[in-house]
Amino acid sequence: MRNLLCVIGTRPEAIKMAPVILALKNESWANVRVLATAQHRHMLDQVNGFFGIVPDIDLNIMRPNQALTTLTARLLLELDDVLQAEKPDAVLVQGDTTTVMTVALACFYHRIPIGHVEAGLRTWDMQNPFPEEANRVIAGKLARWHFAPTEGSRANLLREGVPDAEIVVTGNTVIDALLMTAAKDLDLPVSIDPDRRLVLVTSHRRENFGEPFRNICRALRTLAQTNPDVQFLYPVHPNPNIKDVAHEFLAGLPNFTLCEPLDYAPFIAAMKRAHIILTDSGGVQEEAPALGKPVLVLREETERPEAVEQGVVKLVGPDFHRIVDETQRLLDDESAYRAMARGVSPYGDGHAAERIVRTLREHFA
Ligand code: UD1
Ligand code: UDP
After folding, report:
1. Does an H or E element contain 142, and which?
2. Quick check: 69 and 39 in contact, CB under 8 A?
3. Which domain covers residue 254, as residue numbers?
């Protein structure tokens, strides 16, 4: 038996690692253990509950409005003890959070090989997204297996000098999770008048904190006021830098619903019901095209260029006029809408976890 430790810290890691954990648990050669750093608490627990995953170890690291340095320092110390006790043969991490970067570093110190799920995403700008670009570059430098979602991410890794033999293009496990979920009977989280179009919003990026996020909120308020026949739904990220400002600008508008972060399945239901999605989320940029929903990205760049190139995702930045104009165009111009509402899935076919497990099986079994 080989001991594999799968690490999850935040909501998107739990969603994207779930298909891998579930697939690995069927492998006779693998003793799978799940470590939750719990960089997120409620949002992580909710996803684990949905996929039936119970962490074997839980570091419960989240603190309200925790600084990145504090989070990193506390995690590194805790991880030292865990790795010492667990002695895994390999560790799997997913994505570009502080959990991923810190686990990669701790594993390097302990000389434990890591597999990086969703490897090779790059904007080539360390400040955007902050701190995720640095997190994934560091994880990429230290990884033994690079599970790249697309040929583009493989090319990014090759450009950084990663040997081709260490890269496997797998697709993104987010599509595995989406297909597992979207096939079920899903209930909408709030009642939406069937005659009204729905604009779904999410936003949480650190580089947008402050004035850029205030601009996003101003644009959303203007759109809601000028389109009283359109319903807006915004599950607000619990980071206080987001939550407090969103409520300051958007609470009390009759056609604008602010709510707590939605559980994963109701959020998928909301995406399926949505007419347009405005987001700065990485995962939502991957899921929405597969559901045939036009996405306007509230950022100036993206590490997920494939859907932009296919014309179903457009970057509008945290820019008041571009957000208002592009959203209004999609609401008013039927042909512009139809051009972006084609169902394409450049990020995966639902079999990414199988490919990841096959690679590990060929190495270990
Ligand atoms: C983190 C990741 C980001 C990822 C995002 C997904 C880092 C630096 N950032 O951002 O890459 O896109 O998660 O959502 O790794 N909080 C709660 N309850 C929760 C979760 C968060 O109250 O369940 C609040 C806490 O006050 C916490 C704060 O949000 O301190 C920030 O959490 P943190 O994980 O540091 O950053 P996010 O903005 O969530
Ligand atoms: N999501 C969710 N509830 C919400 C908003 C998003 O379950 O209220 C899911 C969404 O389907 C996607 C993931 O969370 O799979 C994206 O997480 P997030 O936007 O927090 O992080 P990112 O992908 O930007 O790192």
Report:
1. helix 132-142
2. no
3. 197-340
pLDDT range class, residue 192, cuts 50, 70, 90: confident
Per annotation, catalytic residue among 144, 206, 218, 329: 206
Ligand 1 binding pocket includes 46 (Cβ within 6 Å): no
Task: Determine contact, residues 13/45, Cβ cutoff 8 Å.
Answer: no
The protein residue whose alpha carbon is closest to atom 39 in ligand 1 is: 239
Token digits of residue 275:
């007419």
Task: Tell whether 23 and 131 lie within a shared domain.
Answer: yes
List the one residue out of 8, 11, 9, 6 whose CA is nearest residue 281: 11
Answer yes or no: are the C-beta atoms of 234 and 250 closer than 8 Å.
Answer: yes
Do 52 and 121 belong together in one domain? yes
Is 181 within the bounds of a domain?
no
Structural domain total, the chain: 2
Q: Is 64 in the pocket of ligand 1 (CB under 6 A)?
A: yes
Answer yes or no: are the C-beta atoms of 134 and 122 closer than 8 Å: no
> Residue 4: beta bridge partners?
32, 90
Residues 241 and 116 in one domain: no
Q: Residues 149, 253: one domain?
A: no
Q: Are 221 and 320 contacting, i.e. CB atoms less than 8 angstroms apart?
A: no
**In which band, very low, low, confident or very high, does the pLDDT at 304 lie, cut at 50, 70 and 90?**
very high
Q: Give tens-digit pLDDT for 311-322.
A: 999 999 999 999
Q: How many other CB atoms are found less than 10 A from the CB of residue 29?
A: 12
